[in-house]
Structures are given as structure tokens and as C-alpha cells.
Amino acid sequence: MSNVFKGVEPLVVKSKISVPYHWWAGETASAFFIKLRDEQKISGTWCAACKKLFLPPRKTCPLCFSAQIEWKTVQPVGTVTAFTVVRRQLAAMPRKAPVIYAMIKIDGTETGLLHILDEVKPGDVKIGMRVEAKFAEVRKATIFDIEYFRPAR
Ligand SMILES: [Zn+2]
User: Fold this and answer.
1) Domain count, the chain
2) Residue 20: inside a domain, yes or no?
3) Distance between CA atoms of 30 and 40, rounded to whole angstroms?
4) Which single residue of 18, 82, 116, 145 has CA 20 to 30 Å from 126?
5) What is the Å distance from ligand 1's center to 141 Cα?
6) 56-103 pLDDT per residue, tens
């Protein structure tokens, strides 16, 4: 090893890099997000063998691994099964704090969908609260095509 740098203090350069990227969402996520964007419909995947509907949708059944899944549209209503309130503004947050993140079990499904709750005060959110999706006016085939969930009317 060379002694050229012996005694030289390490120089730290501070900078930022930008790495634009694109990737294919995959067959299952593409079908889910396109239906959400174009039809404002939430759909999950049904395993006939297990008699369970999964949302977010899965390419194969996570229980029996069967690839014999069928798409089913669900009503955009469900129940809050867990939630948290983030009061500190963080760079990655999609909106201004406080933000209520909730796990929502859409009616008829077996799994939870993590999303934002709005039109309710943080102190008024309850486990078991019935909520409905509020779809975004401008949809871009992302999970934010559901702008947020709100108390069911
Ligand atoms: Zn199954």
C-alpha cells in the first residue's frame, strides 16, 4: 500500500445526486392500478381453494401458493383495524402533518390496506371505525388515486 496519503486528513465532499428511474410495476400491480385509475374501482385477487380475497392483490395465493386466482372488485368501504398519527413533518410524507395513517380492512377481504385517513380529527379516530375511499379527481395509476379514506357516510 502506498504512503502517498499518509498524514493527509480525509476530505469529505457533500453533494446530492439525482437518480431518475422507471420500472414495470408487474402484471398484478399494473392491472390493479389501471383499474383504479380508469374505473375508480378497487380490486383484489380471490383464491377459490382458500375462499379468501386478498387486497392488495397477489399474483399467487399467499396461503396455498395457487396461481389460479380470480380478480374481484370490492366496494370502496372498510373498517379501521389500526392507526397512528404522525405529528412531526417528515420529508417523505405525502401531505402536511398531522397525518393519520390507518390499516383498513376493505369489506370482504382478508388483509389490510395502509392508507391515509382524512375528514376526521386525529382524536376522533377509533379502531372499528367505518371508512370509505375518496377517489382523486386526477388519477395517475398510483395508490394515491385513492386520495384518502374518510368516515363512511
Ligand atoms: Zn389459496
Assistant:
1) 1
2) no
3) 14
4) 145
5) 27
6) 999 999 999 999 999 999 999 999 999 999 999 988 888 999 999 999
